[in-house]
Design a protein that fits this description.
By secondary structure, the chain is α/β, with parallel strands linked by helices. It contains five helices and 13 strands.
Length: about 250
């Protein structure tokens, strides 16, 4: 079986590009299930009911998010939907959840969303959170979106979960890494799946304001970049009986 995981979708152009390409990608890679990180899918950052519905209607089976899960106040209502996740390590009592299990007939697929804490919000310990989640799942087919800033934290999580889950897939930094591998002959891993949105940009936003912010250290208004888009992600092939990954393939679609 093949699962497609798509890196952070950025803004309207990213959503539109996803819609224009997703059907063909599913066909070309024989995709059975699709997970999309949508935490930056709204105009001006964050996720909204409109952008979430756009991603789902484009063909996503589950949406994951990250540190911008609650960036927009109107996002609160979307987390009533079981297939739209926010990081599981938000404190107890927070709206929404970070785990879902989807029955697709021949098997069940669990999707887990966890946030890193190095250079990000001080949420509950992600490693302890992951251990707790694994005790509750009734399927070996487990895909983890680890939304984290630090490469070391992502690598550590990959090795921590090696042999225990089907895949650990990094998001947040928007730059696709070239370190896809199978850990412990079981767990597909990549430090960052990349982004979906304007390619000629700084992580999806216009270049000049991003450069000025870093160069001059004064406030700027970030705007979504214009121009041609690309889509970054990975396709994971795995055994549904054991949850063991057999292949991970990076994709870049222009």
């Amino acid at each position: 079986m093949n699962v497609l995981f798509i890196g952070d979708v950025v803004g309207k152009s990213g959503c539109d590009f996803l819609r224009s390409k997703l059907s063909a990608i599913k066909h070309d890679y024989s995709v059975d299930f699709t997970i999309v990180n949508g935490e930056n899918s709204a105009q001006g950052n964050g996720i909204t009911p409109f952008s979430a519905q756009h991603i789902l209607s484009s063909g996503a089976d589950v949406i994951t998010t990250g540190n911008h899960a609650f960036k927009r106040h109107e996002a609160a209502e979307i987390y009533d939907n079981d297939i739209i996740l926010r990081p599981q390590n938000y404190p107890d009592g927070c709206i929404g959840k970070g785990v879902c299990t989807v029955d697709i007939g021949i098997t069940k697929i669990a999707v887990v969303n966890i946030s890193g804490t190095v250079y990000l919000d001080p949420l509950d310990n992600p490693f302890t959170t992951a251990d707790k989640i694994l005790k509750t799942l009734d399927t070996p087919n487990i895909f983890v979106d680890f939304h984290a800033e630090a490469t070391a934290e992502k690598k550590a999580m990959g090795y921590h979960l090696a042999g225990k889950v089907t895949a650990v897939l990094g998001t947040h930094t928007h730059v696709q890494t070239a370190d896809e591998t199978i850990l412990s002959s079981h767990t597909a891993y990549i430090t960052d799946a990349g982004m979906t949105g304007p390619e000629n940009s700084v992580l999806g936003v216009e270049i000049k304001p991003a450069v000025d912010k870093l160069r001059f250290r004064y406030p700027v208004r970030f705007r979504e970049a214009e121009g041609p888009c690309f889509l970054n992600g990975v396709v994971i092939s795995f055994d549904v009986k054991t949850g063991k990954s057999t292949k991970i393939q990076r994709i870049i679609i222009r």
